[in-house]
Design a protein that fits this description.
Length: about 950
């Protein structure tokens, strides 16, 4: 073994590239030294091993880190902590704006503490794609795109100026302007090289592309063979500033794919089945790696669709190794031939290239899926893991309808829904619940429509008669990176539209339909195939290039539709080709949301309702009065293949991405604030200096126990980051609305919570502000409400928190399973911290939110196995004291919680401190990760 400090294992070698000889750190040499069995290591672990090997001996990564990764075994035992050094960081604007605000505030803090502000600068290259701000205010016309974009720029001028400031004031920081595409698709089609070729330590070095991103669906890039996942913005900022990302060496669950998808199914159907299977398996905090002969039957866009939804099945990432399809995709998307050659040569030299003859790696555990068993499916109505076969959707909606109804539904209609539920279940219908098992098939294959169908209400919309009832589709959106990156389903949607138009069908007038392509290239190939015309004819005009409906930017429903929903408390539905359907995320007036392929989105827009079995019932009638079935509109494999072959050209990608950072004239004309420090405008309602670094002492105070805490909220299972920190519309009667009105902002200009993440005053008022959140302290109420103790008054959560802060009372949140599931939303932790929450006690946490809580100095605590709030008899009305923090908190250690109720009786129990490592303990001790980083910069 070499004794060279920067090459301790003697694995430094070279690889011939078009740019000359490049240094590589040879994984096969480790195998030759018998330090690892490379053929049996999961490919994802091989990438982590190369990362450690390349950085070993340079100050952060030790030889033991390399040895621990090289010795990875399926049984694992106690997994060690390693530092991971990603090659780059990817941001989107909703999460990127608070990152820039934090960096600007850190520069000011450095100046106040007599340090060098310019030390606060990205060390790792960062790309920010503006894709989350466009809303569907206008739709159904050829002018919709231009009007939405103009409104987007008008609403977000301050935010965009901040981002242009960052592009000029910070090094290693690029911005992709609005109107380009969705961050994950731009990453897939352009930003990701698969193999990096850069100067490192003074040498031209080739190494695997790796990244972290501030969007949980960063994992889409795993479909390209790139290791990367979503993190909170605060973690991403630390990585930007050159800090390692500390993580436990993961377990890796293998998912073996065999067979091939049947005719009539899509990658969307596959990913919904995979999501349900892996969520049942339990893969939180684990890597999932796909293997088996079925991989070779999947196009890369299909793999990216599966990888995209890693957050929905709970994994850190869903990884597909580099293989021949990866190389073909790089060629098809117009990558430089030199890059394609580099990827091919490097991955083969390093044992990172999969073929059908490659030995199967060893995995912590595995499961198998025969692709031939996949059938057309949807997921919903509230969670993406709740798979609903298309043939069972009608049954699913009717069985779930009573639980979807609001408290204001008339008793007669509720009784009708419950009797319908009883008959569908009692006569052998599916036993469908919203629990972990999702929608299970059972009983008869189909049942006749019940006689007591939901009552219909009528109205007029722009001269057209509209009829709404429970189950009516009011939003049909082809949206989100999940599917709009996949040409097969996008062209498939166009072919469905073409056949529908040719049969004389039209979308129902009450359906707000929209198309938000994932990149400009989608528009190019839809235009090139002649399919845009047919989508336009069905009112699926392009409304923007961004996440739109999937992030909650659905825009308002037409007034007549909105009024009928509110007046009659209707349970209306959204159908979308996205990845998220949590409560009130898509639209606050829509209570049921189903995920599905773009082709099915078009079909349900034609049908106008979800309580229909499209496998057996017609979705409409043609001009001759003949019934038209879904099978009549579905494209054949030959139609899909031929259309894709004719429409998709590498030149499209080269042209579109040739000037990707330039933007249009409006973007270019935006003035850029000068200087290296941001000039905060005290009158701004979009951007304010956050309080996290004000009066920060040079050293952290000693840890202390939490004494006399009160409960701010008692929450159930699967509370999402959308519940904790909504991204969509701002409720008109909430604290955030009062703040904006007090600052002269009228409702028409409120924009969304997501767009105002640069202003902590808005965001802390919106914390726990989802209109569907249920706090057990105030049963029967939905939304931002709690009890203030000891007064017993029912007030908004924000107002209660401000009272508690004034009284010097620390706060606690009680929760169930999967707390913080969903988006990598750092404001779900930032907002809680600003409200005075010191700890969250839950049955389990989703990975990113747990990290975010620690990154904001909030202690995540888990019940001991077998215990939960109800088993312990906790109501949330108690006064809590948490001891064991000051005496020496340890990763995975225990604290003692004493809860005293209003009668004076108390119960004591232990809880697990969900600090997984010494580094996380250090973050908590400093009051947050950025506080620790700032103190490190100051000390240096």
């Amino acid at each position: 073994m070499s004794s060279t400090s920067s090459n301790p294992f003697g694995v430094r070698g070279t690889l011939r590239t078009s740019a000359g000889e490049a240094v590589i750190y040879r994984l096969p040499e480790l195998a030759r030294q018998k330090l690892t069995d490379l053929d049996r290591l999961p490919f994802s672990i091989r990438v982590l091993l190369e990362n450690a090997l390349r950085h070993a001996g340079r100050g952060v990564v030790s030889e033991s880190h390399v040895q621990q990764l090289a010795g990875w075994t399926p049984d694992g035992g106690s997994r060690a902590e390693i530092p991971f050094m990603p090659a780059r960081v990817v941001l989107q604007d909703f999460t990127g704006v608070p990152c820039v605000v934090d960096l600007a505030a850190m520069r000011d803090a450095m100046a106040r503490m007599h340090g060098d502000p310019t030390r606060i600068n990205p060390v790792v290259p960062c790309d920010l794609v503006i894709d989350h701000s466009v809303q569907v205010d206008f739709y159904g016309s050829e002018r919709a795109y231009r009007m939405n974009v103009d409104l987007e720029l008008d609403r977000n001028r301050e935010r965009y100026q901040l981002l242009k400031f960052a592009q000029h004031a910070f090094g290693n920081f690029r911005v992709v302007p609005p109107g380009t595409g969705i961050v994950h698709q731009v990453n897939l089609e352009y930003l990701a090289p698969v193999v990096q070729l850069r100067q490192q330590s003074g040498e031209l070095t080739a190494y695997p592309d790796t990244l972290v991103g501030t969007d949980s669906h960063t994992t889409m890039i795993n479909g390209l063979g790139v290791v990367g996942w979503g993190v909170g913005g605060i973690e991403a900022e630390a990585v930007m500033l050159g800090q390692p990302y500390f993580m436990l060496i993961p377990d890796v669950v293998g998912m073996k794919l065999t067979g091939a998808l049947p005719l009539g199914t899509t990658a969307t159907d596959l990913v919904l089945a995979v999501t349900q299977m892996l969520r049942r398996k339990g893969v939180v905090d684990k890597f999932v790696e796909f293997y088996g002969p079925g991989l070779s039957t999947l196009a890369l866009a299909d793999r990216a669709t599966i990888a995209n939804m890693s957050p929905e099945y709970g994994a850190t990432m869903g990884f597909f190794p580099v293989d021949a399809e990866t190389i073909r995709y790089l060629e098809r998307t117009g990558r430089d031939p030199a890059l394609v050659q580099l990827v091919d040569g490097y991955c083969k030299a390093q044992g990172l290239f999969r073929t059908d003859t490659t030995p199967d790696p060893l995995f912590t555990s595995s499961l198998e899926l025969d692709l031939g068993t996949i059938e057309p499916a949807t997921a919903g109505p509230r969670r993406p893991q709740d798979l609903v076969p298309l043939r069972d959707l009608k049954r699913n909606f009717l069985v779930n309808l009573p639980g979807l109804m609001s408290a204001s539904v008339p008793e007669a209609r509720r009784s009708l829904a419950e009797s319908t539920y009883s008959r569908w279940v009692g006569e052998g219908g599916a036993n469908v619940t919203l629990g972990d098992q999702g929608a299970e098939r059972g009983g008869t294959a189909a049942l006749a429509a019940p006689d007591d169908a939901p009552p219909v209400v009528t109205g007029l919309l722009e001269g057209d008669a509209i009829t709404l009832q429970d189950g009516s589709v009011v939003i049909a959106a082809i949206t989100s990176c999940t599917n709009t990156s996949n040409p097969s389903v996008m062209i498939g949607a166009g072919l469905v539209a073409k056949k529908a138009v040719e049969r004389g069908l039209m979308t129902k007038p009450w359906v707000k339909s929209s198309l938000a392509p994932g990149s400009r290239v989608v528009t190019d190939y839809l235009n090139g195939s002649g399919l845009t015309h047919y989508l336009d004819a069905l009112r699926f005009q392009t409304v923007g290039y961004g996440c739109t409906t999937c992030i909650g930017n659905s825009g308002p429903l037409p007034d007549p539709v909105a009024q009928l929903i509110d007046e009659h408390s209707l349970v209306t539905c959204a159908v979308l080709s996205g990845n998220r359907n949590f409560e009130a995320r898509v639209h606050p007036q829509v209570r049921a949301n189903y995920l599905m392929s773009p082709m099915l989105v078009v079909a349900f827009a034609l049908a106008g309702r979800v309580d229909i079995d499209l496998t057996r019932e017609p979705l409409g009638s043609d001009t001759d009065g003949r019934p038209v079935f879904l099978r009549d509109l579905w494209p054949t494999p030959e139609e899909l293949r031929d259309t894709m072959a004719a429409a998709l050209k590498p030149e499209m990608f080269r042209t579109r991405y040739g000037s990707v950072f330039a933007g249009d004239e409006t973007w270019q004309a935006l003035p850029v604030p000068a200087g290296t420090r941001y000039s905060w405008d005290p009158a701004s309602t979009y951007v304010q200096e956050p309080p996290f670094f004000r009066d920060l002492p040079p050293a952290p105070a000693p840890l202390s126990d939490i004494v006399g805490a009160r409960c701010l909220a008692v929450l159930g299972d699967s509370v999402t980051t959308d519940h904790i920190s909504p991204a969509g519309s701002i409720p008109k009667n909430g604290p955030a609305a009062r703040y904006l009105l007090d600052h002269g902002v009228q409702q028409v200009d409120w924009n969304t919570f997501g767009s105002r993440r640069g202003n902590h005053e808005v965001m802390m008022r919106g914390t726990f502000g989802n209109v569907r959140i249920s706090n057990a302290l105030v049963p029967g109420k939905e939304g931002n409400w709690t009890l203030h103790f000891p007064s017993g008054e029912t007030v908004s959560i924000y107002d209660a928190a401000m009272r508690y802060i004034a009284e010097g009372t620390p706060l606690l949140v009680l929760a169930g399973k999967e707390y913080g599931t969903g988006s990598s939303r750092d404001w779900a932790a930032k907002g809680a911290a600003l409200l005075g929450v010191k700890a969250v006690l839950a049955e389990s946490f989703e990975r990113i939110h747990r990290s975010n809580l620690i990154g904001m100095g909030v202690l995540p605590l888990a019940y001991e196995p077998g215990q939960d709030r109800k088993a312990l008899g906790l109501t949330g009305r108690e006064t809590f004291t948490i001891r064991g923090i000051a005496a020496g908190l340890a990763p995975g250690g225990r604290v003692l919680i004493t809860a005293a109720d209003e009668s004076g009786r108390s119960i004591s129990f232990q809880a697990v401190a969900r600090l997984n490592s010494q580094v996380e303990l250090d973050y908590y001790r400093h009051g947050g990760i950025l506080q620790r980083v700032l103190r490190q910069f100051l000390a240096a």
